[in-house]
Design brief:
single chain; alpha/beta; Rossmann fold; Arc Repressor Mutant, subunit A; 2 domains; five-stranded parallel beta sheet; 10 helices
Amino acid sequence: MTALIVDDHPTTRDGLRQMVADVLPSADLLEAEEVEQAWALASEHRAEFITMDIRLRDRESLELISRLRRELPKAKILVVSMCDELAYAPRVIKAGANGFVGKDASREETIAAIRRVADGRMHLSPDIVEKMILPGAISRTNNSLDLESLTDRELEVFRLIGQGLPPRRVATKLAIAARTVEAHKDNIKRKLGLANAAELARRAVLWFEGGGR
């Protein structure tokens, strides 16, 4: 078996490598820190187990999950991330991942997630299971917005606005036109019921500072 660990932080990769080795002692372990590097290694070595962060050095990895699911339909994919679980876990499952666990989870919980996914089972927190089975069950506050209606790209724009980036820098970061950013902002305001750009920026900052990464 080949296992691939995808994360742009060496310390995180070290910790995950040790935990994956504990669960899959006979696996050949590979590492990647960028999307294209991960894709090349997974494709070449036909990786059977993959852990990855959502946000890598070059870009987000949701598209990579979809590509891997198409190319390697039997691969087990576990997302390990600090991103907002309520916002991102349903998206990674839809893209083709088998589970989601936070980087702030205990070692025991992370190992349990690795073991469940490696065994062909799903791993999600109880809150996410409830959210996916009973839409609307999770309470909505200023720091926990209902972001399900946003597309993946709109969520990226929302997150970058929450980091304090102006539209031009958002456009540069995502390699899209400034007018496209404005179109995404208009869509976000409409979907979230926000009156203007100032209210959008305030809500995005509140979400980001509240842990929505």
